[in-house]
Amino acid sequence: MKQVIKYGLLGLLCYLVLLIATIPAAPVIYQIQQQVPRTFQAGGVSGTLWNGKIAQVVASGETLANIRWEVKPLSLFTGELAIKLRAGDKEEWLDSKVAVSFSGDVSVEDTQARLTFNRFRRFLPGGIDADGVFRLDLEHLALVNGKPESFKGELKWRQASLSTPLARPELGNLTLQLTGNGYGKGAKYQGTLKDDGGPLGVDIKLELSDLDKYKVKGMIEPRDNFDQPTRRLISGFLPSDNNGKLKVDQRGSLKTLQQFL
């Protein structure tokens, strides 16, 4: 009798999974859109909840195109919902694996993305501009109760450049490697910023503890082909060693820093 009940429940679960898999995505996306009409707009929805596509999404002012998802049905038997996400085109794209547990915890693995600086230009202060391409390689991100529990990844800024009223330096290619554990008290995030031999040599270590105490230490080396006006400008703020490398050594509190911003 117990075996009958066991296989009966398993069969019922499989039936429910199959039923959900055949639900069209369009009505569900429409309901979400009705709940948050000002911050979320979707067009060109096709497929099912299990395997679908959205031609374009506008969320909080950001536009994403050609979004595709594929749910891994067998993941439900391990206590989570695993989804393969893809979005974008040749210019900007995203490829990620996301898993959501029944308790609400989120795990993001093997995420790659390519974004141009156009997406971030509106956040720059007046008179400052920048250009280049960002490439994100996020190996792991764990969210518990909506907060980061751990992460590890790398952000590359390719063909990086700045534009200010005083100078327009080319920065070359920069890479920021990041790791972190915890959130709030006891949290520790670390990073390393380096160049790959371009006009600006960079080797800086960053550390953030308890989401407040920060340390930035390392060196900057303007090479011979670096923008001369910018070289003179930053040399006036940073001390240099006998080899002409500029020393960076800053530490303090984010809470104190925010008072001046």
Main sheet properties: 13 strands, antiparallel
Widest beta sheet: strand line-up: 1-2-3-4-5-6-7-8-9-10-11-12-13
The number of helical runs is 4
Q: What oligomeric state do these chains adopt?
A: single chain
Shape: elongated
Helix content: 10-25%
Order of helices and strands: HHEEEEEEEEEEEEHEH
Give a verbal description of the structure.
By secondary structure, the chain is of the alpha+beta class. The protein has a domain at 105-258. It is 17% helix and 53% strand. The protein has four helices and 13 strands. Strands 1-2-3-4-5-6-7-8-9-10-11-12-13 form a 13-stranded antiparallel sheet. A hairpin with a 6-residue loop joins strand 9 and strand 10. The longest helix is centred in the N-terminal third of the chain and has 20 residues, at 2-21. The protein is elongated, with a radius of gyration of 24 Å. The N and C termini lie far apart (70 Å). The model has no long low-confidence stretch (mean pLDDT 86).
